[in-house]
Amino acid sequence: MALTAETESRLYRSLRAAAGAAAHLVALGFPTAVAVLARPGSSLFSWHPLLMALAFSFLMTEALLIFSPEISLLRSFSRKVKVRVHWALQLLALLCALLGLGIITYNKHLNGKAHFVTWHGLTGLLAVLYTSGQCMGGVLLLYPKLMKNWTLAKLKLYHATSGLVGYLLGCASLMLGMCSLWFTTLVTSVSWYFAMLCPLLTSLVIMNQVSNAYLYRKRSQH
User: Fold this and answer.
1) Helix (H, G, I), strand (E, B) or coil at 4
2) Looking at residue 122, which CATH number applies to its domain?
3) pTM (2 decimals)?
4) Where is the Cytochrome b561 domain (predicted)?
5) Is the pLDDT of residue 152 over 90?
6) Neighbour-count burial of 107, counting CB atoms closer than 10 A to its CB (0-12 exposed, 13-18 middle, 19+ buried)
7) Which one-letter DSSP state was computed for residue 145?
């Protein structure tokens, strides 16, 4: 029997809500699992995976999900409050990423190892640099008059799109980190595949959110 449009709409909303709930759980669960594995404080290196997981899995994911109309934890709050919380989470994410990058760089220096010679290292560096630029670009949304030839709606759309690129870079860095000797020694078999699915899940949810915002803007123009 064919589904009615109303039934399909309810089913779609239910699936989005379920995926959003899973994204929130993964965003917190992944860095928690990394903390258990890394045992922060046991060595200088131990802070690197935890800080990067906090930056790109928890803080940045929650900063982006804040604007979701269905799965935001701040749905009942005003847009102004959401923007402020988004800024705070993004700045914390950038701080964690910069600290994580600084720690691994210094740790390699102490051990006489080469810097940024792996795909994980290069992608991680690019993600941190991109995130820094993205945060500075967000200032334009606070002061849109600086871009006289751009409407606020366009600035929001481009900021969201470029932010998605930065987020995907961060997730790619996390996934490449899970291919490292340190991670594959501690996590094996099915657990490793489950860990790899974590950034994939949150990436799909965030991509769906951005694409829906783009489609909504297109419809509102007609």
Assistant:
1) coil
2) 1.20.120.1770
3) 0.90
4) 12-217
5) no
6) middle
7) G
Q: What is the CA radius of gyration of the chain?
A: 19
Query: What is the residue whose two structure tokens read 């810097």?
Result: 115
CA dist 20 and 202 (Å) reads: 8
Alpha-helical segments (H) within 67-151: 79-110, 119-137, 139-142
Instruction: Give the tens place of pLDDT for each residue, 182-217.
Output: 999 999 999 999 999 999 999 999 998 888 777 666
The answer to whether 144 and 83 are in contact (CB under 8 A) is no
Domain total in the chain: 1
Cα 133 to Cα 126, 130, 171, distances in angstroms: 11, 5, 17
105: domain range?
A: 53-210
Specify the residue for token string 């990436």: 203
222/219 Cα distance (integer angstroms): 5
Six-digit token string for 102: 């600084």
CA distance readout (Å), 127 to 63, 78, 93, 214 = 16, 30, 12, 23
